[in-house]
Amino acid sequence: MAKTKEAAMRTKNLRGIVRLSALAGLAVGGLALAQEAPDRGIVHVGGDLYRAHNNAHNTVFLVTSEGIIVSDPINRDFAEWLQGELASMYDVPVRVVAYSHHHWDHASGGEVFADTAEVIGHETMPGALALPSGDTPLSDAAAALDANGNGQIEQSEASGNLAGQFALIDADGNGMLTGAEIARGPVSDVYPPSTVYSDTRTVTLGGKSVELIHVAAAHSPDMTVLRFPDEDAAFFVDIISLKRLPFMDFPGLEDVDSLIGTIQAVEAIDFSIGVGGHGDIGTKQDVADHRGYIEALRDAVAAGIADGQSLEELQASITMDEYSDWGSFNWLPNNIAGMYRILGGGN
Q1: pTM to 2 decimal places
Q2: What is the pLDDT of residues 88-127, one digit of tens each?
Q3: What is the 3-state secondary structure (H, E, C) of the chain?
Q4: Same structural domain for residues 109 and 226?
Q5: Number of structural domains, the chain?
């Protein structure tokens, strides 16, 4: 008896997952020989929802009979890899790309899917990608690199992140970075959304749906959480990392209470399975545990500041031992330093 299209898709999917698992095992051994090869793979979350990863960055995709819904493309090379894997596993194209937010390390490379997909972002995303005024001066840090004093940074003058992300910052590709380009950031390979939404939007495809939910701007003004009702799952990026410490020293965060409030807003969303842009697949309780870590760290650092302790003393005395089995626990000193800054330590 001939298989139905849905059954054929599921069979093809299972074969693909087995093949990817085998390739992942080979890749682990191969990394010793090719250190630059990215660690990539696909795992099943539940129902028709899957997570794909590129090193420490994760995205998700939902398979339907009429096409595939993908969240963050992560970067162009990964997006091309994912497009190839999906084409080999399914007979339908990517029809929707739904961004979590505009930051370059999650949103780059969306153009790979643009021929077949509607690309969706929050209504603040186009503004976040726009160049500031052309007379925006160089930042103090960038100006210190301007050896010839021409008000721009050339490739030979760049160092650190400016050197590593030069092409992603260079919006016009002329080999020079202006103050406006540096202020805009490394988003030159972020494909702008073709459609935008405001507070919420539900996308339905092939009888399946995903809800895009805008949450408070604790990390980015266009931050979106994706909810998959049939899979009882949610995907969130950067604001929450399941079973992993927050990134380094909370870069860019100025108000820890706003971050805690945003996490509470995610907890109020109806889901059981949580998938983070970083960290593990987990549960809503893991989301609450992440918030609990941030609250406990805030309280410990605040108490130390009130007692007149220095940053070095706080880093020596705050152990957070109950979280020692979490990923990236070696970032604890950075987390303490970031919280110390946010709470006004040293002022």
Answers
A1: 0.88
A2: 999 999 999 999 999 999 999 999 999 999 999 999 999 9
A3: CCCCHHHHHHHHHHHHHHHHHHHHHHHHHHCCCCCCCCCEEEEEEECCEEEEEECCEEEEEEEECCEEEECCCECHHHHHHHHHHHHHHCCCCEEEEECCCCCHHHHECHHHHCCCCEEEEECCHHHHHCCCCCCCCCCHHHHCCCCCCCCCEECCCCCHHHHHCHHHHCCCCCCEECHHHHHHCCCCCECCCCEEECCEEEEEECCEEEEEEECCCCCCCCCEEEEEHHHCEEEECCCCCECECCCCCCCCCCCHHHHHHHHHHHHCCCCCEEEECCECEEEHHHHHHHHHHHHHHHHHHHHHHHCCCCHHHHHHHCCCHHHCCCECHHHHHHHHHHHHHHCCCCC
A4: yes
A5: 3
